[in-house]
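Fold this sequence, please.
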Amino acid sequence: MKNFIKTLDKKCPAFTYLCGKFPRLTFEKVKADVFVGPQIKQLFKDQQFEAVLSDKEKAAWQSFEKISNGFLGNFKAAYFRELVQDLMDSYEQLEVQYVAENALFIFTPGFLSIKL
Protein backbone atom coordinates (compact mmCIF):
# COMPACT_ATOMS: atom_id res chain seq x y z
CA MET A 1 0.00 0.00 0.00
CA LYS A 2 2.80 2.38 0.90
CA ASN A 3 4.48 1.91 -2.48
CA PHE A 4 1.18 2.54 -4.23
CA ILE A 5 0.41 5.74 -2.31
CA LYS A 6 3.92 7.09 -2.86
CA THR A 7 3.45 6.88 -6.62
CA LEU A 8 0.24 8.92 -6.63
CA ASP A 9 0.52 12.55 -7.62
CA LYS A 10 -0.65 14.52 -4.59
CA LYS A 11 -2.93 16.58 -6.85
CA CYS A 12 -4.46 13.66 -8.73
CA PRO A 13 -8.12 12.66 -8.30
CA ALA A 14 -7.22 9.38 -6.56
CA PHE A 15 -5.21 11.11 -3.83
CA THR A 16 -7.91 13.74 -3.39
CA TYR A 17 -10.48 10.96 -3.14
CA LEU A 18 -8.47 9.26 -0.39
CA CYS A 19 -8.32 12.50 1.59
CA GLY A 20 -12.10 12.88 1.27
CA LYS A 21 -12.82 9.22 1.99
CA PHE A 22 -10.97 9.33 5.31
CA PRO A 23 -11.56 12.86 6.65
CA ARG A 24 -10.07 12.04 10.05
CA LEU A 25 -6.71 11.42 8.42
CA THR A 26 -4.78 14.58 7.71
CA PHE A 27 -3.22 15.22 4.30
CA GLU A 28 0.17 14.40 5.79
CA LYS A 29 -1.04 11.06 7.16
CA VAL A 30 -2.57 10.09 3.83
CA LYS A 31 0.66 11.15 2.13
CA ALA A 32 2.66 9.01 4.61
CA ASP A 33 0.28 6.07 4.07
CA VAL A 34 -1.07 5.77 7.59
CA PHE A 35 -3.80 3.27 6.75
CA VAL A 36 -4.88 0.31 8.83
CA GLY A 37 -6.39 -2.99 7.71
CA PRO A 38 -10.07 -1.97 7.95
CA GLN A 39 -9.44 1.16 5.88
CA ILE A 40 -7.63 -0.83 3.22
CA LYS A 41 -10.49 -3.35 3.14
CA GLN A 42 -12.94 -0.46 2.68
CA LEU A 43 -10.95 0.67 -0.34
CA PHE A 44 -10.98 -2.86 -1.78
CA LYS A 45 -14.80 -2.71 -1.77
CA ASP A 46 -15.01 0.88 -3.01
CA GLN A 47 -15.90 1.03 -6.72
CA GLN A 48 -15.57 4.82 -6.79
CA PHE A 49 -11.93 4.63 -5.77
CA GLU A 50 -11.11 2.41 -8.75
CA ALA A 51 -13.09 4.75 -11.01
CA VAL A 52 -10.80 7.70 -10.22
CA LEU A 53 -7.60 5.73 -10.87
CA SER A 54 -5.74 5.90 -14.17
CA ASP A 55 -5.30 2.66 -16.10
CA LYS A 56 -1.79 2.03 -14.73
CA GLU A 57 -2.87 2.91 -11.19
CA LYS A 58 -5.90 0.64 -11.48
CA ALA A 59 -3.74 -2.28 -12.65
CA ALA A 60 -1.35 -1.76 -9.72
CA TRP A 61 -4.24 -1.42 -7.26
CA GLN A 62 -5.89 -4.61 -8.50
CA SER A 63 -2.56 -6.47 -8.26
CA PHE A 64 -2.14 -5.23 -4.70
CA GLU A 65 -5.67 -6.36 -3.90
CA LYS A 66 -5.04 -9.81 -5.39
CA ILE A 67 -1.84 -10.31 -3.43
CA SER A 68 -3.47 -9.07 -0.23
CA ASN A 69 -6.33 -11.52 -0.62
CA GLY A 70 -4.34 -14.40 -2.08
CA PHE A 71 -1.10 -14.34 -0.18
CA LEU A 72 -0.96 -12.14 2.89
CA GLY A 73 -2.70 -13.24 6.07
CA ASN A 74 -3.61 -16.83 6.90
CA PHE A 75 -4.32 -17.96 3.34
CA LYS A 76 -1.49 -18.70 0.92
CA ALA A 77 -2.60 -19.19 -2.67
CA ALA A 78 -0.94 -21.99 -4.60
CA TYR A 79 -0.19 -19.51 -7.39
CA PHE A 80 1.46 -16.88 -5.18
CA ARG A 81 4.47 -16.60 -7.50
CA GLU A 82 2.18 -15.35 -10.27
CA LEU A 83 0.58 -12.89 -7.85
CA VAL A 84 3.96 -11.52 -6.84
CA GLN A 85 5.13 -11.27 -10.45
CA ASP A 86 1.92 -9.50 -11.45
CA LEU A 87 2.37 -7.03 -8.58
CA MET A 88 5.98 -6.35 -9.52
CA ASP A 89 5.09 -5.87 -13.19
CA SER A 90 2.25 -3.47 -12.49
CA TYR A 91 4.30 -1.49 -9.97
CA GLU A 92 7.12 -1.31 -12.51
CA GLN A 93 4.66 0.33 -14.90
CA LEU A 94 4.04 2.94 -12.18
CA GLU A 95 7.81 3.34 -11.91
CA VAL A 96 8.04 2.02 -8.37
CA GLN A 97 11.66 0.95 -8.40
CA TYR A 98 12.19 -0.29 -4.86
CA VAL A 99 9.24 -2.71 -4.76
CA ALA A 100 11.36 -5.38 -6.46
CA GLU A 101 13.90 -5.27 -3.63
CA ASN A 102 11.15 -5.53 -1.02
CA ALA A 103 9.39 -8.34 -2.85
CA LEU A 104 12.60 -10.31 -3.26
CA PHE A 105 13.36 -9.94 0.43
CA ILE A 106 9.87 -10.93 1.51
CA PHE A 107 9.58 -13.89 -0.82
CA THR A 108 12.96 -15.46 -0.27
CA PRO A 109 13.08 -19.10 0.86
CA GLY A 110 12.49 -19.51 4.57
CA PHE A 111 10.76 -16.19 5.08
CA LEU A 112 7.23 -16.79 6.38
CA SER A 113 7.97 -20.55 6.20
CA ILE A 114 7.40 -20.67 2.46
CA LYS A 115 9.52 -22.89 0.27
CA LEU A 116 10.00 -21.62 -3.27
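The CA atoms of residues 84 and 104 lie 9 Å apart. The chain has eight helices and no strands.
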